[in-house]
């Protein structure tokens, strides 16, 4: 899988854990298993902290595992800080440190009132001639890839389009309702809301890239949202992402508050 394809998958993993709780200082920890065609390829652990002043910080670690580790060691750390406003998490700063083998890259994005005011990549990448640049218009009213997938309990989750920027690629995730399914894991047992997802790349990618084209043409991507017992919010607990190499699944194996 291409470098950017793995980074997009890591952004999806990061998006799973961001679960706000009450205004009081509470911690919420989640653990995830990632598989490709049924084989384990990564594990992830995240911690969400909500402070009394309505600020929040979310931090996570992601590492390759199983057969993927035999090919190349991949790791990432990600974090987002912001404020809880109008029952939504509004990011102020998002960062992702990504390492594949000996190569490392850092993505940093700063927000103000939902708009991106700066986005940097270190070291600066060399862009091909057929690269589709992110425009100033693309940076308005944009969600980060972590807290952008958390919704209050009265939201019609699967009837909206999510404008996401992950530090490099600007994409829309078009959600559509597909009913509900039973879901059980450590810390949760109940119904999950199932959304079909259509991936629409906007900018920040190489035109004609096979993995982007494959995903944008697929109708098999899904996100399952479960309601957190700690607050009146929904967050993802299961994601399936079709790739040319098989189905990537991201499953919450622990979903609960830290006492």
Automatic annotation (TrEMBL):
Keywords: Signal
Signal as UniProt keyword: yes
Signal peptide per UniProt: 1-23
Pfam family, one: DUF3108
Designated name of the protein: Hypothetical conserved protein
Organism encoding this protein: Rhizobium etli (strain CIAT 652)
């Amino acid at each position: 899988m291409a470098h950017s394809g793995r980074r997009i998958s890591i952004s999806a993993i990061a998006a799973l854990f961001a679960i706000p709780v009450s205004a009081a200082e509470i911690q919420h920890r989640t653990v995830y298993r990632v598989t490709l065609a049924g084989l384990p390829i990564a594990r992830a652990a995240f911690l969400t902290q909500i402070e009394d002043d309505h600020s929040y910080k979310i931090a996570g670690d992601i590492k390759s595992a199983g057969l993927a580790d035999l090919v190349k060691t991949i790791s990432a750390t990600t974090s987002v800080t912001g404020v809880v406003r109008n029952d939504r998490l509004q990011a102020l700063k998002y960062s992702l440190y990504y390492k594949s083998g000996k190569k490392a890259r850092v993505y940093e994005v700063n927000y103000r009132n939902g708009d991106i005011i700066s986005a940097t990549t270190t070291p600066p990448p060399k862009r091909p001639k057929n690269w589709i640049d992110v425009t100033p218009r693309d940076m308005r009213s944009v969600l980060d890839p972590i807290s952008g997938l958390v919704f209050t309990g009265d939201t019609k989750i699967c009837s909206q389009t999510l404008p996401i920027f992950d530090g490099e690629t600007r994409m829309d995730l078009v959600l559509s309702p597909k009913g509900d399914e039973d879901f059980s894991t450590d810390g949760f047992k109940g119904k999950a809301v199932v959304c079909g997802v259509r991936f629409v790349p906007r900018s920040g990618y190489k035109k004609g890239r096979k993995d982007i084209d494959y995903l944008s043409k697929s109708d098999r991507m899904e996100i399952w949202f479960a309601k957190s017992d700690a607050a009146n919010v929904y967050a993802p607990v299961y994601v399936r992402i079709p790739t040319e190499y098989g189905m990537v699944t991201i499953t919450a194996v622990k979903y609960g508050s830290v006492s």
